[in-house]
């Protein structure tokens, strides 16, 4: 019996779906991602079920929405013990499993205690300083986050944040680290070492390799020369809402507390150019790994998937980061490459989501798997061009009460509801693909609004997501925020120095 195909699962943090050369006409330099898309299938309407890191990643490895796999929809929550997790499932079916970079599986463990890895047998971790913040805020210990130990070993201890820009601080700046020691380079180099180690010690087994880049998540701090690849003067301006479009108070409040309204247009342009530079940097690391697989005769026997946990608003409507349902935040890149079973150059408009990754990878790998009790669908027939995904609309949500927001969209319209202040939004995607104008109060839109709202309420009932509705089946609401009293506060900017 021949060996099963290998799996290379490439993930980024906070990468927009349109931030690739193959997905738009912008200036992003991403030749290796473009190569994967040309040799595989790219989904142009892929979405995250929850546009924030931890629940999105929990969905990736379980195939279930966060209310099922963790019970928490904000940026926390441990995967429940009754959930089947993808890394362990592949390990149980004969795969050697490796991970390099960002797992974002909580809770974190202190130094000396076993880490939560959900079945990855060999792990090199970089959690963007979250574990350091919890267990070693002064950066004095070893064995907390592997990347920081590496920096100490090569003489660059602590320099990852030496530019003074915090983890969720949007201010752009060039990394003080040389390219060879930058975090995403380290992820690429560690993945190459894992591949070589696998060939030396476990060549009789297929590998499941997770290459998880912490970027292009803020800070937007590419190393030289990637800071200069994209000219900020040529960056497309952020989207601007039409008229007095009403939007979620959660994001309006975050905008003020984080100081985004005072950013100059030039600063936003540099932020975008540096964000794109981070993508070019991680793209180069992907190229190193693809070249290595090809040189060792493994490329075409390796299922490759590329995606992200969520996007980044990148200045659109005055917002940055994630946690909302406009395209920049909720849509994610999604590419599969495996010549044996995937049609090259295919572009699909199916509503694929992160919940579909687990059942799809097991199907492509020929591993028995029952997807009857999970939310995700097997995309195999979409990937080979023989079938369609039977999903007429996509639902995504974020946060727990009283901050809950939820979205439903089909190919023509998008409906969003925010518990705080009972704010509803409705966008005609055919006429307004960039979601510039909320037409929730347009009389002509009422039939479609009612249709999507009813479909959303039905989805909530069928999926047991009871937080969003009262006993009568109506969306709940909580008191609105007085936006006029929200103030900019430095301590809300997510600064984390190590």
Q: How many E strands? A: 12
Briefly note the structural class of the backbone. alpha/beta
Number of helices: 13
Task: Name the CATH class of the largest domain.
Answer: Alpha Beta
Q: What ranges have pLDDT less than 50 throughout 5 or more consecutive residues?
A: none
Number of domains: 2
- Order of SSEs: EHEHHHEEHHHEHHEHEEHHEEEEH
Work out the helicity level.
Answer: 25-40%
Task: Give the CATH architecture of the largest domain.
Answer: 3-Layer(aba) Sandwich
| Name of the CATH superfamily of the largest domain | Alkaline Phosphatase, subunit A
Question: If you compute it from the alpha carbons, what radius of gyration comes out, rounded to the nearest whole angstrom?
Answer: 22 Å
Gross geometry: globular
Distance between the termini: 49 Å
Give me the CATH fold name of the largest domain.
Alkaline Phosphatase, subunit A
Q: In which order are the strands of the major sheet placed?
A: 4-3-5-1-6-7-2-8
């Amino acid at each position: 019996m021949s060996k099963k195909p290998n799996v290379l699962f490439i993930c980024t943090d906070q990468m927009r779906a349109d931030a690739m050369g193959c997905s738009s006409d912008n200036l992003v330099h991403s030749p290796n991602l473009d190569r994967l898309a040309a040799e595989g299938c790219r989904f142009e309407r892929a979405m995250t079920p929850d546009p924030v890191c931890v629940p999105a990643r929990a969905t990736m490895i379980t195939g279930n929405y966060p209310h099922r796999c963790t019970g928490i929809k904000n940026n926390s929550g441990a995967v429940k013990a009754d959930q089947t997790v993808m890394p362990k499932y592949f390990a149980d079916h004969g795969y050697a499993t490796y991970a390099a970079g960002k797992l974002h599986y909580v809770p974190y463990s202190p130094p000396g205690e076993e880490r939560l890895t959900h079945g990855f047998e060999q792990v090199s971790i970089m959690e963007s300083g979250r574990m350091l913040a919890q267990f070693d805020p002064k950066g004095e210990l070893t064995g907390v986050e592997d990347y920081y130990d590496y920096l100490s070993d090569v003489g660059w201890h602590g320099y990852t944040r030496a530019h003074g820009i915090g983890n969720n601080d949007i201010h752009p700046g060039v990394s003080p680290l040389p390219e060879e020691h930058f975090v995403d380079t380290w992820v690429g180099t560690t993945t190459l070492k894992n591949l070589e180690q696998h060939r030396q010690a476990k060549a009789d087994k297929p590998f499941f390799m997770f290459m998880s880049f912490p970027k292009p998540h803020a800070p937007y701090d590419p190393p030289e020369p990637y800071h200069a690849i994209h000219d900020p003067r040529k960056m497309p301006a952020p989207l601007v809402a039409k008229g007095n479009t009403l939007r979620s108070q959660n994001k309006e409040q975050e905008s003020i507390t984080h100081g985004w309204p005072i950013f100059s247009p030039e600063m936003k342009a540099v932020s975008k150019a540096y964000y794109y530079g981070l993508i070019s940097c991680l793209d180069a690391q992907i190229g190193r790994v693809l070249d290595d697989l090809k040189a060792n005769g493994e490329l075409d026997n390796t299922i490759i998937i590329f995606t992200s946990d969520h996007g980044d608003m990148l200045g659109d409507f005055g917002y940055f980061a994630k946690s909302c349902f406009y395209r920049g935040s909720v849509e994610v890149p999604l590419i599969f490459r495996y010549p044996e079973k995937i049609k090259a150059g295919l572009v699909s408009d199916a509503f694929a989501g992160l919940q579909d990754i687990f059942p799809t990878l097991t199907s492509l790998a020929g591993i028995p798997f029952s997807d009857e009790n999970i939310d995700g669908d097997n995309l195999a027939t979409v990937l080979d061009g023989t079938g369609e995904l039977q999903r007429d609309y996509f639902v995504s949500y974020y946060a727990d009460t009283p901050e809950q927001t939820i979205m439903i969209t089909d190919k023509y319209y998008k409906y969003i509801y925010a518990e705080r202040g009972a704010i509803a939004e409705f966008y005609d995607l055919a006429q307004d693909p960039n979601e510039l104008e909320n037409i929730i109060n347009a009389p002509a839109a009422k039939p479609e609004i009612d249709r999507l709202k009813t479909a959303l309420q039905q989805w909530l009932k069928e999926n047991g997501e009871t937080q969003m509705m009262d006993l009568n089946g109506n969306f709940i609401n909580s008191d609105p925020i007085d936006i006029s009293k929200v103030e900019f506060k430095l301590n809300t900017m997510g600064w984390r120095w190590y």
